[in-house]
Amino acid sequence: MQTRDSLKLLLLQIRQEQYKVPTGMSAFELALEMMNHVGDIDAELRDKLIYSTLSRWSKNNEFTFEQLRCLLRFSLDERHLFWGIGEVETDTVFTRSFSVLLVPLAVQVHNRSSFLIENEIHCIKRTLMQYIELEQDLRGFVSGKGWAHAIAHAADALAAIADSPFLKPDDLLDILHIIKKKICIGRHAFIYNEDERLVTVVTTILRRGLLEDHISMEWISGLGVIKNSGILPDDDILRANTKCFLRSLYFRLMAQKDLGRFKDTVIESLKLL
Q: Per the domain annotation, does 260 fall within a domain?
């Protein structure tokens, strides 16, 4: 078993050698070692080495489908995606936020090979919804420890599965509801592009065309109807989060002509804030 220091030295060497799997070593066995340290507070180890290596190896098909399925299952378990869930401003957030990034990596492989079955995609969706509902540590960049970015990373995972043909209109509406619930809050100001990452999920859903336009427009309109608490600065933060999200959505729609029909609804929603 690798210690964190020996693992870091090994991964530095692997990166220097263009991510070639070391002779006599198994990519899968090393990936299991990386999963033990996926939430390390050392930003270089966690982000630049572990995540980057897992990303490169998954793209290079270094894992069999069963091995990737196993890594995905580990990433979504109680010791990873739900490790310390509910805690605020503790280091457990790094384990959760970097475990969730295994979802888009696995889905990217699935998009090339269709190795996941329908039940697995639905299980991923349900698990993500539960995780996002429970995640309370919304920090973006943490001084001295690097990116936490739990909501942005979760958005990347949602965007990956939202494009799955296995997800039906009700599934997509569930995703829209959890996005609204998370972005429309007053206890934390999102300032690290979380809105842009979440907008990617929304435009992915809109582009699929499975939801009737009036349903999508009702959801957008609902963003303009926020319930103030009467407490400052919470109400101002809530309004700012919602405005930033809607503005990001508007400009994304401007750049995608096939979705331009939703722009007026966004404008009307903004006028209500």
A: no
